[in-house]
Amino acid sequence: MGIRGQAVVFGHAVTRSKGDQPIMSLKAFHIIFVTISTLFCVFFGTWSLDQYRTVDPSGMNLLYIIGSFAGLIVLPVYGWYFLKKLKHVSFL
Predict the structure, then answer these.
(1) Please, what is the Cα angle at 87 between 82 and 91, to 5 degrees?
(2) Phi then psi for 85, rounded to 5 degrees?
(3) What is the DSSP letter of 89?
(4) DSSP 87
(5) Beta bridge partner(s), residue 14
(6) Which of 8, 9, 31, 47 is within CB 3.0–4.6 Å of 17 for a Cys-Cys bond?
(7) What is the C-alpha to C-alpha distance for residues 26 and 86, in angstroms, rounded to an integer?
(8) Alpha-carbon gap, residue 49 to 2, rounded angstroms
C-alpha cells in the first residue's frame, strides 16, 4: 500500500494514520508552526537589535529587525485566520 493508500481524511485535514490514530492534523501542525515561528521572530529580532546597537549598525541588521517585527504581526494574524477558517475541524 502506497502513501496515497495510507492517507485518511478527517474533515478538511488529511493525515497519515499509524494504526487507528492520526499522526498530526493540519490544524495542530499550524498551531505548533505559528507558535514556534513567532517565538523565533522574537528571539531573532532581539538578537538583531543587540547586534545593531553594539556590534554592527549596518542596514542588514536593521532589515532583520524590521522583518522580525513584521513576522511578529503577520504570523499571529495568519494563525488566527487559519483557526477561524478551520474551527469545525478537530485537532486530532
Answers:
(1) 90
(2) -65, -35
(3) S
(4) T
(5) 9
(6) 8
(7) 10
(8) 48
